[in-house]
Amino acid sequence: MSVCTDNLAAAKTALHSLLTGEQIVKVTFNGRTNEYSQTEIGSLRQYIRELESECGDTDSNGRLVSRRGPIRFHG
Predict the structure, then answer these.
(1) Strand runs (DSSP E) across the chain, as ranges?
(2) pLDDT tens digits in sequence order for the chain, 75 residues long
(3) For the domain that residue 17 is a member of, what is the CATH number?
């Protein structure tokens, strides 16, 4: 996995923890630790959207999908 997808997975895990009852989660991105609480779920979701945009496209389940180039026909 790339650093981007590792960070995205960590952020999604942190969001899941908050949504299932954890009061505070700590996540380390690029050597920096951030704490998120229940009141900061919105900012964590925004960070996830930014990472998804940076890392590439996601499917309906939130999994990363690779981008393909245009289809070209020769003939």
Answers:
(1) 24-29, 32-37, 57-58, 64-65
(2) 678 888 889 999 999 999 999 999 988 877 888 899 989 999 999 999 998 888 876 555 656 565 556 667 776
(3) 3.30.1580.10
